[in-house]
Amino acid sequence: MTILAFTNFGARELDFCSDAITNVTYNTTIKKSGRQSLHIGADGLGTASNFRLNNSYLGRFYWFYLYIVTLPATYCEITYEYNISGSHALRLYSDGKLALWTNGQTPTMSSSALSTGVWYKIAMVHSALTGVHDVTVYVDNVQFATRSLPRGINYIRLGKQTALSGEFLLCSYVAADSDEIQNYDFAVDDLYPNGNGTYTAYTGSYTDVDEFPNDGITSYVQSTLTSGDAETFALGGDASFDTIIGHLLESRVASSSNLSGASYKMRLRYGGTNYDDSVATAISGTTFVLKTKLTAGLSVKKNQLLPIEIGFVEQSTTRTHRISNCLISVLSLNVPDVQKIGPRLQVI
Ligand SMILES: [Ca+2]
Ligand SMILES: [Ca+2]
After folding, report:
1. How close is the Cα of 287 to the center of ligand 2, in Å?
2. Could you give the 3-state DSSP secondary structure of residue 324?
3. Which of 103, 119, 121, 227 has its CA 20 to 30 A from that of 96?
4. What is the pTM of this model?
């Protein structure tokens, strides 16, 4: 099983989105896990409101949690799967029922309704990404609706592609190339700096890198000109479930001048050991750019990985780099001890 992507729309919100975000906000109060949920239709009006996913993260299988704030007057889209020959969508209707819609055809309605103010786990399971294929929707692991679609998917938008009323939240989006996590509860949690770590050599401290969203040059830590000097941060937050199957270090990094990029390594530290990534280079210039390091396919118990520190190691004696914010997103499942996740992975 390959995990293609997971996010709570944290530090990497723009990386995860392939074009301009349309009228979405982030809700830090109502969320399933992590720092925030994606808020669709927050104005309560009939406006387009969506978040187009980067196509690198397009999977046959995707999951998210849905929380309905306000039912639409007629219907609204929850996800919109685009194809130039005609798109399809998962719709929410005014009576709380879901429907699968495809352009030019009558929607397939679900038989039962969702309630407002409740988190539901939604699974979209496609048999293919191209051509005629089947799609099935699960709500809290129960098949809700299925139908044949006449065409494939070129990209996905989360939220309303067209200007329709309705307001809802999405949290913990995961895409994969198989459905092996289908029957497990899952969560994407954001662990973010809340204390200084083992290494404190850089100018500045954790309070300069703990914000969401990134504040650019308002606050940052800056490396020294001594190769090997490091800064790491202790992290607040927790993984929701006991089996961790992936983590993603996300950070906004810039050079301190326009002369050339500054080299550094990302560092993870747990169990008393440092795990440094290969040397990376910030772009030339003082613009902060998102840097990520994804490790997916883990299957370890939470207590083997947490607590974890994240940080950076200077690799240059001529150019310093700056970190504006960082966090680590953790994907966890509620897998019983005896279970395996995928043929290559063994729960320890
Ligand atoms: Ca420091
Ligand atoms: Ca900052």
Report:
1. 13
2. strand
3. 103
4. 0.88
